[in-house]
Amino acid sequence: MGNKGVLLVLLTAIVSGVSIFLNRFGVSGMDSTIFTFSKNILVALFLAGVMLAFNQWDNIKKLTSKQWWSLVLVGLVGGSIPFVLFFAGLKMTTGAAGSFVHKLMFIFVAILAFMFLKEKMSWKMIVPALLLVIGNYYMLNLSGLEMSFGLGLVLIATLFWAVENVISKRLLREMEGNVVAFGRMFFGSIFIFAYILFSGKVSVFSSLGMGELGWIAITSLLLLAYVMTWYNGLKSVSVSTATCILLLGSPITTLLSLFFSGASVTLLQASGLIMVVLGVISLVLLDKKLIVHANSTA
């Protein structure tokens, strides 16, 4: 079961790498909040359809009121607030700096998982962690990194996502992956729409053209693949390991960006790419105990 979970998370990383690359085109010329809400609500509807088609809707009907409130929390902490903060922060800082801070999420997740999920932390994680941090720094070609208000918002959003992943991992002990994914997307959409109403952006929906709607549809399908593979994979893999594996999406995004821009890979970037890949591989191979089976955590 654990190997299947690792495979699903690897698929998540691939989808993430392609999705982040395409989202840059999709969100250009469109309000980021409208873009995010539209994708989230479509994915929530898709997930509802998937569960109905595969007779999984009973899993929703059997939820207790406490479990429903837990899903509401996941939607608030992971599916709404961090998105608003993240995109607001990106407007005030560079994409490379924002991406680097976001990629530090695995460190926060490891600490939180140790505190609240009792996932074991090993000294063996130090070398892979350094490879991942330094590799991302080189890969994103950051000549200097200074803290700013915008970068602070990105950092807060990253912390929210780290908390959400730990909460989701706990919920996956008693819920199916598609159910947690649905809760995150559905309730996240409700909170984001409330923000849209509060900020007076509802009229923006009427200005969306066929081009924007097309990008929303394409990126929604990728987001659907992301949440389905991520939450179903996370059910049988430690959240610390899962978030580290997710970093493999970063080299994919970078390579796609360089390929379509016609730019060449610098020696420093190539070194960063190799370090990220080695960091993820060494983390999984050096500490087998980080890969946990769903039955052992139930």
Any overview of this molecule?
- The protein is mainly α and 298 residues long.
- The chain has one domain (2-118, 145-237).
- It contains 15 helices and no strands.
- The chain has helices at residues 2-27, 32-53, 58-61, 65-79, 81-90, 95-102, 105-116, 126-139, 149-171, 177-198, 210-234, 239-245, 249-261, 267-286, 294-297.
- Helix 6 packs parallel to helix 9 (149-171), helix 7 (105-116) runs antiparallel to helix 12 (239-245) and helix 10 packs across helix 11.
- The longest helix is centred in the N-terminal third of the chain and has 26 residues, at 2-27.
Structural class: mainly alpha
The proportion of strand residues reads under 5%
Please, how many domains? Answer: 1
Mean pLDDT: 87
Terminal CA distance: 13 Å
- The amount of helix comes to over 70%
List unreliable stretches of 5+ residues: 290-298
SSE sequence, one letter per element? HHHHHHHHHHHHHHH
Number of helices: 15
Determine Rg (CA atoms, Å).
19 Å
How does the major sheet shape up? none
The gross shape turns out to be globular
Using DSSP, what is the number of strands? 0
